[in-house]
Amino acid sequence: MAGHLEKHAAVGAVTALHFSPDGSLLYACVGSTVYFYDTATGCQVHALTAMRSGAIHGLDVAGSVAALFGQKMLAVLAHAPSSPMDDMRRVQVVQKEFPDWILDARLLCDEPTPGGALPLVAVGMAHNFVHVWNPTTDTIVHSVRCSERSILYAMGLYGRSLDSLVVAAGTVFQHILLWNPMGDDGQPVQRLHQHDGVLFKLQWSDDGQRLASVSDDRSVQLWANGGTGVTSPATTLSRPFESIFRGWGHTARIWDVKFTSLGLVTASEDATCKLWDLSTNQCIATLHGHTDVNVWRLAVHPSQPHSSSSPTHVLAHAHGDDIVSSVLWRDNKLYSTGHDGYLAITERVDGVFVITRKQSIKGLATLKRVWFEGDDLLVFGFHAKIAHIVNVSQSFRRLSVTTGGWRSPHALRVESAHDHALCIGQKDTILLHASSSLLEATQATTSVHGQMHHSKTACCVEWDPVAKLLLTGGEDNALKVYAYDAQRQVLDCIDSVSMHTTNIRALAVTKNYVVSAGGKQSLHVWRLHEKRLQHVGEHTPRDAPQDQRILALVVTQLGDGRTLAFAGSSEGAVTALLIDAAGHIHVAGVFGTSTRKPILSCGLYHVENQLYLATGATDGKVVVWHLTDAVATSNYNDVTPAYVYTAHDMGVNCLSILADGPSSCFHIVSGGDDQCIAHATMTLTSNGGLATTTHHAGVRNASASALKAIRCVGNVVVAGGYDQRVTVWRWNDARSALTWAAAALSETADIAGLAVYEALDASSSALQIVAVGKGLQACTFTE
């Protein structure tokens, strides 16, 4: 009997953005789901799974209709919400799978259609095809291929009707082909070539007389034909397009470009956006805020087409030659502070901004910040080594704290007249001066999709059954704590800490500790206290190179209260570490095989006093270690493998152990680069020795790509890999064979880890499954 695997909340890369026509809603697409945000409050108001598979890479919105596309799928939303108050129950989704990769889609809302019918959709394909699809009748009403048969990396469609369509096609040869899909021959009318790399985005201006392009060469270009106003395709293409602007400044590939009232805005792999003023051909602003890598998509608000402009007034030497440390605009006055110790007030006089007042603050030589509380003006600054908060309006000092001076690291937070916190760094100490009310939890008033999630790939995930929280570690060096609300289907990151100096590759959880490990063979021990991580201890070998990593980790609780951890490294060694009740870490021993192949995975069997460790390496072999005596004596010098077998043709990427009966046998289930699941049963003697080993058929071709994560829980085995598919397999009664039970295509790309646990609802027999990789998604499996 087949089970059911249902996908729920997902956090990952935002791969498409678009505002509603009036700008009151923002469409943000993650995987196959589109989230709708109220732009006035920043809160999510709706969510809709628009496609049955794949990830949405682009969308077009016209009136109450939206077209979303990704891979070979296209979805048209009828009655799409255009304001936060719209009823999502009216939304209807029409989907179609096309024979080729979709690069662009355009709603032809100006093309006449029968009453009540959806508009036609022009669909641009990767092999330089354009199809015109009627979503009402599900028919292709027009299809044309450019005579130049080249594979494309980008396409930009212009026009809202058949007779206004123009195609810009970016080929693998770095050329931009301009052609008319409604013409007779499909011949390229113009060929543009100045980029030195692959073209990633082609964007038309509203009138179709300008075309923006971005590329692998890290530049943005604007092409124009000198025309003005909307013209027919023949007229538009009759005028030669020439490059009138080329902008450099991004330090990595540029993914997206949009027009603004000032010129252009670009998004890049370097995690920044840049605003370009075409009147001066200069970058006028660089927008930061995203972390590490990749701003994939942009959207420009229809009624706020620019968010920055070139300076209209420059106040030179407002604070002499010293640093301007803060500015504040209030009641048509500009307040500024500087390292010259002055508070300057600037006003507009006869159309010109002039400094109308400069005020020194008694006792402060350096000013760092200015703000208002009600009508009271306050400043924060330093005199020698003392930091002061001064109420300028009422002429008194609210706070004086001895510090290391303004050059010492410091941070100030002020909530109200009685709530403040000042942190000062002194050598290896952080001093905190705070009011107690600031330590109370605050409630966020806005929402950012995926806020605090890993900025790079998440490598591992574990479920803490005591705290009932999820923990993840990733390539961004961060360890994160998530709370999952199954009813609301929301994953909230409630804590994040980055004490690892390089990536976190493995996690393990006991009732006492959370253990994380990764680069430089570094291992950290944590406690979860009131849903927050508290650091307990660290073990990092001296002079460990950064390219040496702990790739696999298991922990168990010993009878004397200590925690035992086994860490498998890229050097082919297993390190046994003991963690006492105080969190002190002691290396008990190191052992391994003579081959020294990197250890990718491990699993532990610990029942009563019997302890077996299984490790999987890059050579496809699984090594079984009988460690009962070594643990009892803390002597690992003479440890040798109890059993070795070849489980996979290539690396054993993941491994899980399932105990079967008290002290009788255990199952080793592993997944590898060969896309197969291997299964072996280890039967023990009455005194705990290894009696027999049985190798079962496992599952051949269990995945379309390498398997990277596998978990045995109860009567099922859950596996995931690079094909983004989460698959559940069910044991037979004898636990000698696995049969397929359910599968789902996750929104998480490059799945690297799985957590599987029983649903928190006591009345449910469902399993919760969480997949991490380039994103994070929760699923529910029910029989």
Main traits of this protein?
four-stranded antiparallel sheet, Methylamine Dehydrogenase, Chain H, WD40_repeat_CS, single chain, 783 residues, cytoplasm, Lipocalin
From the helix content, strand content and strand pairing, which structural class follows?
Answer: mainly beta
**CATH third-tier fold name of the largest domain:** Methylamine Dehydrogenase, Chain H
What is the count of distinct domains? Answer: 3
Largest pleated sheet? 4 strands, antiparallel
The general outline is: globular
Mean of residue pLDDT values: 89
Strand segment count: 63
How much helix is in the residues? under 10%
Q: Write down the CATH class of the largest domain.
A: Mainly Beta
Name the CATH homologous superfamily of the largest domain. Answer: YVTN repeat-like/Quinoprotein amine dehydrogenase
Distance between the termini: 8 Å
Organism: Saprolegnia parasitica (strain CBS 223.65)
Protein name: Anaphase-promoting complex subunit 4 WD40 domain-containing protein
WD repeats: 192-223, 247-286, 451-492
Pfam family, one: WD40
Protein model, in words:
The structure is a single chain. The chain has 783 residues and is mainly β. It is built from 2 helices and 63 strands. The strands form 16 sheets. A 4-stranded antiparallel sheet has the order 2-3-4-5, with no helix packed on it. A 4-stranded antiparallel sheet has the order 6-7-8-9, with no helix packed on it. Strands 10-11-12-13 form a 4-stranded antiparallel sheet, with no helix packed on it. Strand 19 (210-215) and strand 20 (219-224) form a beta hairpin.
